């Protein structure tokens, strides 16, 4: 008797609950009326995939560049409301790792190819460095094709001919074309100024804008197997140069012994803060 009364109470409760629920059609109509004034508009490229890099232009808040993993480089001249591709017909591959604009010359743009965010086996490689001297209208390939994945490009704020490239290197295999590269002729020739081994690449670069001779590099021992992401090892760490990248010393004081992928940035307001 008690059991049947309990079941009856449950049935009555659910009955009232179902009566209190609005019908799905009425709920949908209510939402449709609520969102009716909203109009959809596209604020990004119709293709491109993930974005690994974006940058503005000093002195012009309307212009932005965005590098994507499958659609090359895009440019906006209206604060991101619309985007136009600038790399079609110039880039051989579509995967961009980094884009940088000179702070003293907005026409000078460098792009490093190959996404640096290691993920699944669909991570796409690149073919080196491209350079534009007309704000992205035309591009010229500047070498370093075998680096495959470029994480960062830095232009010396006092000398546009001095350029640094942080190369992570091949993801699925060992290779020597990785580390930090330096050019003193605007990218015509490159010198590998920091190399640890064939499994350690550069994941980040940061230059002291108050003293461009000081540069920091984050080095990352890594790799990718079909079943595993390899991250960290004795080759990982932070390195510093005080002579414009010609010589480097590994920093250890206050840092953990085992390090993975590292980001590093020098404060523009206070160079002592890193």
Features:
single chain, mainly beta, 4-stranded antiparallel sheet
Gyration radius, in Å: 26 Å
Low-confidence stretches: 1-19
Helix vs. strand class? mainly beta
Q: Whole-Å distance between the termini?
A: 76 Å
Q: What's a concise summary of this model?
A:
By secondary structure, the protein is mainly beta.
Question: How would you characterize this protein structure?
Answer:
The protein is mainly β and 274 residues long. The protein has helices at residues 2-20, 24-35, and strands spanning 51-57, 60-68, 73-76, 84-85, 96-101, 109-113, 129-132, 140-141, 150-155, 163-167, 179-183, 191-194, 200-207, 215-225, 228-231, 237-241, 249-251. Strands 13, 14, 15, 16 and 17 form a 5-stranded antiparallel sheet that branches. A 4-stranded antiparallel sheet has the order 1-2-3-4, with no helix packed on it. 35% of the residues are buried.
Topology:
Blueprint: H1 2-20, H2 24-35, E1 51-57, E2 60-68, E3 73-76, E4 84-85, E5 96-101, E6 109-113, E7 129-132, E8 140-141, E9 150-155, E10 163-167, E11 179-183, E12 191-194, E13 200-207, E14 215-225, E15 228-231, E16 237-241, E17 249-251
Antiparallel strand pairs: 1-2, 2-3, 3-4, 5-6, 6-7, 7-8, 9-10, 10-11, 11-12, 13-14, 14-15, 14-16, 16-17
């Amino acid at each position: 008797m008690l059991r049947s009364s309990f079941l009856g109470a449950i049935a009555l409760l659910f009955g009232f609950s179902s009566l209190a629920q609005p019908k799905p059609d009425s709920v949908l109509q209510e939402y449709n009326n609520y969102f009716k004034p909203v109009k959809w508009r596209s604020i990004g490229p119709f293709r491109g995939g993930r974005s690994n890099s974006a940058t503005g232009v000093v002195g012009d808040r309307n212009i932005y560049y965005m590098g994507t993993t499958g659609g090359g480089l895009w440019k906006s001249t209206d604060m991101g409301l619309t985007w136009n591709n600038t790399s079609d017909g110039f880039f051989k591959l579509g995967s961009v790792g980094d884009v940088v604009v000179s702070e003293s010359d907005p026409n000078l743009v460098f792009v490093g190819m190959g996404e640096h965010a290691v993920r699944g086996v669909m991570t796409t490689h690149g073919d080196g460095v491209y350079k534009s001297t007309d704000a992205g209208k035309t591009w010229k390939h500047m070498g370093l094709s075998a680096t495959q994945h470029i994480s960062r490009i830095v232009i010396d704020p006092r000398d546009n001919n001095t350029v640094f490239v942080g190369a992570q290197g091949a993801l699925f295999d060992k290779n020597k074309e990785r580390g930090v590269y330096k050019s003193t002729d605007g990218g015509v020739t490159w010198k590998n100024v920091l190399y640890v081994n064939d499994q350690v690449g550069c994941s980040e670069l940061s230059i002291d804008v108050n003293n461009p001779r000081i540069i920091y590099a984050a080095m990352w021992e890594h790799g990718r197997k079909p079943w595993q992401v390899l991250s960290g090892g004795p080759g990982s760490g932070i390195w510093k140069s005080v002579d414009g990248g010609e010589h480097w010393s590994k920093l250890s004081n206050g840092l953990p012994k085992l390090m993975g992928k590292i980001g590093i940035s020098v404060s523009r307001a206070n160079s002592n803060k890193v």
